[in-house]
């Protein structure tokens, strides 16, 4: 291991020392990073096995290159050679990667050791990366890109060891959304402190990946009633069949079919199912769910927005427009211990596993 | 007073009964409302004195009509006649209004009585409105539009009685941003429960209207240190001269000049001034402040985003990208008692009054 200290100055836990240009910005905002494998003492060097491009980036690459595998390989190689990271310049997005730890610097606090098979939980858009195999094994048909090369984790990066007992694609799918159950667990637990009977929790999009994990997390955190909102009968059936942790109760106590973008409709349905909710969790990736979530929530309650389709202004103005005294949280993708919590939930909830298996098969 | 009950069905506190089309949506989303002055029992009828168009709407109207007052009057009259509310179809935005209560329905819970001079704190974009004076007194040079006519408040609308001891433009300017100090007060008070020494609070944009009120609110709620972040020396001087509630201490204990859109710069400046902050309040109306706010905040702390320029995804991904365990709040414009709290702050903090006076003069 080559550890740098004096020759290029001190490292920053945020990776500022790897930013080549423009100077002074965070790695995610940088046009170009330094992916040199010579490490600083708080870094971790990873031997890459697979890139998981985010959906928006993969779609853009496929469309811009007419689905031609050779052109798509060349495009990704070009980006990584140019930028020192896999950040699609059109979408701005990255993805995550899996690999094996080669070296952990003496000052690294990530708790990783050589040989650990890990997934990075920070975006590829800020991860120094070098590709050495010309992506020869990637046929361009999937956002999962077999890849050899190396990547660097900073002092304050996030990575999780992949569990031995679960298929890698399943673990990746779980880790991709693990921020949602972790924050749901925390908020429901806190709500339980002031309401020992246990809060009522509504999950919009309860039959999806982040939604089903959040439903299981809400239950574990002491919800007295979990209301699952789904858009149509097919998802209602999937949720109805999904078993809870004890093998009998379902993931949701009440299942309602409603259009999450119809504020009056969805709030009436939640109300009829035992609402309004003390905590409402939005896991529906379509725009326009802010009003329904706000109206489904009791005064003094909390809405957690996990959907990236959430509009900040629609949420802020929507609550004001109906005099709703609700706490609205931006769904932070990071909560300490989030990957472990989500992996444990999928191990202990056959219903969540069922939903993930049906949704990762064939992807 | 004509009170409707049986002839057109029951009223909804949200105003659904006033929606003409499309059926079933909230009044804000409606294309057309029914502004008939015949009231439902939980409504309030207001004799309008002035519309305060929101800045985006006023700018659009002025530009689309080449600043011609006659054309601008015709445009506003046309919108209100067509839609039954003053919601600019291009910007989607409204504004607020002032007027005098004509009648309060027997079931109204807003606590208003005939003769009260009020400001509405819900948007014009959801308020039924009829204009009767052809806006003859509006010269089109200001977003403050003298106006005669009537408006309707719903059961769950928000309105505040204008104080006698303050100029109306000042009260309006205060009420326009009163959600920020109210939520800041609540969050800082809550943070004080777990940290009896009092939390450290950073205000990005502390010399502005919402920023100065939020600084005063943070102090009143028990902050141990208020750090005011401003973009340049002129604002630093304004903040330095602003007296606190006791007439001696300034609004901010520490004043730092930094570019809020430079994450590394602003967080370093906040750190040097006594940070990181337990609570960071973003009152800067420019895009790109998410990263700086997140990095200026201690692990376990809270960021409150009041700027409408906030990007939901930049906040969510930004926190994840630097493994920041921070609670991020969408700045809800409504907290119970928000108008009264803000009016009290401006009465008791000469420094805030000073900042408002300098910023409302000539507007």
What does this entry look like structurally?
The structure is a homodimer of 363-residue chains. Chain A is an alpha/beta fold and 363 residues long. Helices cover 33% and strands 22% of the residues of chain A. Chain A contains eleven helices and 14 strands. Chain A has a six-stranded antiparallel sheet with strand order 6-7-3-4-5-8, sandwiched between helices. In chain A, strands 11-10-9-12-13-14 form a six-stranded parallel sheet, with helices on both faces. Chain A is elongated and about 65 Å long. Chains A and B meet through helix 7, helix 9 and strand 14 of A and helix 7, helix 9 and strand 14 of B.
Beta-strand content bin of chain A: 15-25%
* Multimeric state: homodimer
SSE string of chain A = EEEHHEEEEEHHEHEHEHEHEHEHH
Query: How many H/I helical runs of chain A?
Result: 11
List the helices and strands and how they pair.
The structure is a homodimer of 363-residue chains.
Chain A: E1 19-21, E2 32-33, E3 44-53, H1 55-64, H2 69-83, E4 95-104, E5 117-120, E6 129-131, E7 144-153, E8 159-161, H3 168-176, H4 179-194, E9 200-204, H5 209-220, E10 225-230, H6 233-241, E11 254-257, H7 263-272, E12 277-282, H8 290-295, E13 297-305, H9 312-321, E14 327-330, H10 338-348, H11 350-360
Parallel strand pairs in A: 9-10, 9-12, 10-11, 12-13, 13-14
Antiparallel strand pairs in A: 1-2, 3-4, 3-7, 4-5, 5-8, 6-7
């Amino acid at each position: 291991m080559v550890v740098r200290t004096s020759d290029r100055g001190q490292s920053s836990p945020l990776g500022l020392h790897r930013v080549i240009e423009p100077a002074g910005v965070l790695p995610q905002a940088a046009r170009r990073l330094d992916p040199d494998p010579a490490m600083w003492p708080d870094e971790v060097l990873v031997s890459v096995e697979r890139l998981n491009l985010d959906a928006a980036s993969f779609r853009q690459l496929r469309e811009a290159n007419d689905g031609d595998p050779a052109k798509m390989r060349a495009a990704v190689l070009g980006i990584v050679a140019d930028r020192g990271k896999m950040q699609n310049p059109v979408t701005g997005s990255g993805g995550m990667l899996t690999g094996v730890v080669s070296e952990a610097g003496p000052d690294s606090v990530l708790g990783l050791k050589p040989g650990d098979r890990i997934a990075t939980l920070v975006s590829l858009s800020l991860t120094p990366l070098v590709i050495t195999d010309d992506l020869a094994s990637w046929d361009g048909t999937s956002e999962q890109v077999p890849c050899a090369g190396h990547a660097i984790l900073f002092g304050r990066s996030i990575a999780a060891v992949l569990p031995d007992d679960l298929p890698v694609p399943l673990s990746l799918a779980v880790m991709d959304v693990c921020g949602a159950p972790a924050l749901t667990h925390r908020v429901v637990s806190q709500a339980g402190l002031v309401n020992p009977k246990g809060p009522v929790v509504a999950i919009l999009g309860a039959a999806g990946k982040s939604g089903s994990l959040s439903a299981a997390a809400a239950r574990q955190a002491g919800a007295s009633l979990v209301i699952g909102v789904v858009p149509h009968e097919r998802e209602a059936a999937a949720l109805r069949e999904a078993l809870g942790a004890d093998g009998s109760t379902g993931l949701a106590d009440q299942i309602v079919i409603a259009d999450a973008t119809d504020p009056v409709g969805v709030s009436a349905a939640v109300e009829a199912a035992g609402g309004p909710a003390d905590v409402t969790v939005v896991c529906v990736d379509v725009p326009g769910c802010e009003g329904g979530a706000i109206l489904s929530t009791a005064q003094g309650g909390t809405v957690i927005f996990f959907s990236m389709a959430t509009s900040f202004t629609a949420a802020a103005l929507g609550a004001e427009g109906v005099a709703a005294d609700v706490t609205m949280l931006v769904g932070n993708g990071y909560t300490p211990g989030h990957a472990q919590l989500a992996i444990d939930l999928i191990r202990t909830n056959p219903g969540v596993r069922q939903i993930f298996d049906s949704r990762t098969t064939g992807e």
